[in-house]
Design a protein that fits this description.
Strand content of chain A: under 5%
Helix content of chain A: 25-40%
Number of domains of chain B: 2
Largest sheet of chain B: 9 strands, mixed
Number of strands of chain B: 21
Structural class of chain A: mainly alpha
Largest interface: A-B, 19 and 28 residues
Strand content of chain B: 15-25%
Oligomer: heterodimer
Number of helices of chain B: 16
CATH topology of the largest domain in chain B: FAD/NAD(P)-binding domain
Chain lengths: 118, 506
């Protein structure tokens, strides 16, 4: 009887810890998406990454390119319509969901992307 | 494929007994597979591995020659490879701009320049083939929408001005138009698809490939393996191996991880390894070009590279420990790269040297503004200010500036024998612009041996391996010891087009 209760208690605590751990790897701006369930993004099952097109279910690349447009001199520094890959770079190359990520540009350049959330 | 039966090794291993067999079998398991018994998951007409200049040009040309089902497979999530991040410099003889500017040039002249640079061991047949078709490749880029600066440039080692440069001064000015053209004409492109081996037929012909679809770079178990049959042939356009530290150190032990790299992360050489596995001949693997113009303050090629290339002739490179020069600033790339690597502090740790230029002269290059803006270059009004920032001893530095300026005046560098022609009247004086220097591996002249039809030669027979073609930086021997600037794009594109023509004729 005591063993069973201890086991149950351990399981509950374990779940609480797991939830706490998961909470640290979530994005506050995606709260509503989480409420809808993992499949909102994980269109290939949760054992692998979402497809490259998953983000585009909700976000429009042309609209994003307009929002992050830069002045003529720096126009190709637009992260959503950049010199090297145009608008074809998969979102996950710069945006991590459950782990931090830096813009791919920082491999070679020291551009400032103030709004980018690592 | 070689006449030697690679699969026969398994029978040999069996005969050695269970214990030895188990130990030895592990490496043996990674071997090209025979086609009999393979269950193909899909079939394509022309199969191209790699999405840089060579792969894109091959896809367009194959389609123009009548191919109905052309596929490009790229292991990264994005297309373009190194081609999308290079300087966009395209050399060709007999171009429209040369005619307009009255520049006398020829295939013979371009080949002669390259043979000289290659120290006489470049492949003259291949260089001639590329030079003969370079204008066709340039036209392909223009047809696809590439735009170039309205002037020719004469890069180091070239005897005349023959180099076009994209208006964005980047290879993406070519890869993006070519990629869009591929889409327009119906070429199928597949990202996250890593080539993992050839499938060899009974007669040694390449029948197809093993491809890992859904691949995430550096996660080698990601995705799933499929077998793809290539009806006409496979074109390997997989680029160089500058990012493979183990391989480059095997060829040149000075190229440790301390030496950075200008290349895209995927330039690791596996495609080349697979060709060696089935018998391709390695050529010039140790001729690896490092850029002495690169900066430790930014990744890859960045902005400092072009800034330094422009300013080296009229600048002074300084060892920060001594405050003294340590090299001829326009010596060949290898000499300068090694000299930079030798700059160390008291503990032997790397101490990247600095390049000091008078702002009066550096400001003429557009990158000067950029290096300062992005904090990879600095501007100073006094020697003291400069010396303090980089912790250089002031007194020897001042003495060195005075000494160097005396060489500018006399035209004779008694320290390192630098050719002072281009430094004439360009004294080192305040205000100064300064960048830090540290070499980065830039280009691998080595790779697989090919014919002028882009066929891959087999080690044992000396004959082409049927069904397999290769183009671009994955090929070896083309440029010899040193590749001239702006000669990579014409090579990649011409040989990509050539591979396509060969595959369509086979």
């Amino acid at each position: 009887m005591n063993n069973k209760m201890n086991t149950a208690l351990a399981l509950v605590l374990g779940c609480c810890l797991a939830l706490s751990a998961q909470a640290r790897d979530k994005r506050d701006y995606h709260e509503m998406v989480y409420d809808s369930g993992c499949k909102s993004c994980h269109d290939q099952g949760t054992k692998t990454y979402p497809s490259d097109g998953s983000c585009l279910q909700c976000h429009d690349i042309d609209e994003l390119a307009k929002q992050t447009a830069r002045s003529e001199e720096d126009k190709w520094q637009n992260p959503h319509n950049n010199l090297h890959y145009g608008k074809d770079l998969p979102c996950v190359e710069c945006h991590g969901e459950h782990a931090p990520k830096k813009p791919i540009c920082s491999n070679c350049h020291t551009f400032k992307f103030d709004k980018h959330k690592e | 494929m070689s006449n030697v039966d690679l699969l026969g090794r398994r029978n040999f291993i069996k005969g050695m007994g269970a214990a030895a067999g188990v130990a030895i079998a592990t490496p043996a398991m990674a071997i090209s597979e025979k086609a009999d018994g393979v269950k193909w998951d899909k079939e394509v007409e022309v199969l191209i591995i790699g999405s840089g200049f060579a792969g894109l040009a091959a896809a367009i040309e194959a389609t123009r020659k009548g191919a109905k089902d052309v596929h490009i497979f790229e292991k990264m999530s994005y297309f373009g490879g190194n081609s999308a991040i290079n300087g966009g410099l395209f050399a060709a003889p007999g171009t429209p701009m040369q005619k307009k500017e009255g520049v006398q040039d020829s295939v013979d002249r371009m080949v002669a320049d390259q043979m000289k640079s290659g120290r006489g061991v470049a492949d003259e047949g291949l260089l001639r083939h590329v030079a003969e078709h370079a204008v066709e490749a340039l036209q392909m880029t223009m047809d696809a929408g590439s735009e170039f600066h309205p002037y020719l440039q004469q890069l180091g080692g070239h005897s005349v001005a023959r180099t076009y440069q994209t208006t964005v001064s980047c290879g993406a000015g070519i890869t993006q138009p070519l990629y869009k053209e591929c889409k327009r004409i119906g070429v199928k492109t597949h990202n996250r698809s890593k080539f993992e081996g050839f499938i060899i037929g009974e007669d040694g012909k390449v029948e197809g490939v093993k491809m890992r679809e859904g691949y995430y770079f550096k996660e080698e178990d990601s995705g799933k393996v499929v077998y793809i049959r290539a009806k006409r042939g496979v074109i390997a356009a997989t680029g160089g191996f500058a990012q493979n530290i183990n391989l480059r150190m095997a060829q040149d032990p000075t190229l440790t991880s301390e030496v950075g790299c200008t290349n895209a992360p995927g330039a690791t050489g596996e495609g080349m390894y697979e060709m060696f596995r089935i018998g391709a001949i390695p050529v010039h693997m140790a001729h690896i070009q490092s850029g002495p113009w690169a900066s430790p303050d930014e990744g890859g090629f960045g902005y400092v590279s072009n800034y330094s290339i422009y300013n080296f002739p009229h600048s002074m490179a300084i060892n920060r420990l001594t405050g003294k020069r340590f090299m001829n600033e326009i010596a060949d790339r290898k000499t300068r790269a090694d000299a930079e690597l030798s700059c160390r502090d008291e503990k032997g740790e790397a101490l990247p040297p600095i390049l000091i230029t008078s702002y009066k002269h550096s400001k003429k290059h557009p990158n000067t503004k950029k290096v300062i803006k992005y904090n990879v270059g600095w501007k100073f009004d006094t020697v003291e200010e400069l010396a303090k920032h980089f912790e250089v001893p002031v007194k020897p530095l001042k003495a060195q500036i005075e000494e160097y300026n005396s060489y500018v005046k006399s035209g004779d560098d008694k320290q390192f024998g630098k050719n002072m022609t281009k430094a004439k009247d360009k004294f080192i004086e305040a205000p100064f612009t300064v960048v830090r220097l540290w070499p980065k591996v830039h280009y691998c002249q080595g790779g697989v041996q090919i014919t002028t039809k882009a066929e891959v030669k087999d080690s044992f027979t000396g004959q082409p391996i049927k069904g397999l073609y290769a183009a671009g930086e994955v090929c070896g021997g083309v440029h010899g010891v040193s590749r001239l600037g702006s000669c990579s794009i014409p090579e990649c594109m011409v040989m990509g087009m050539t591979a396509a023509r060969s595959v369509m004729e086979a």
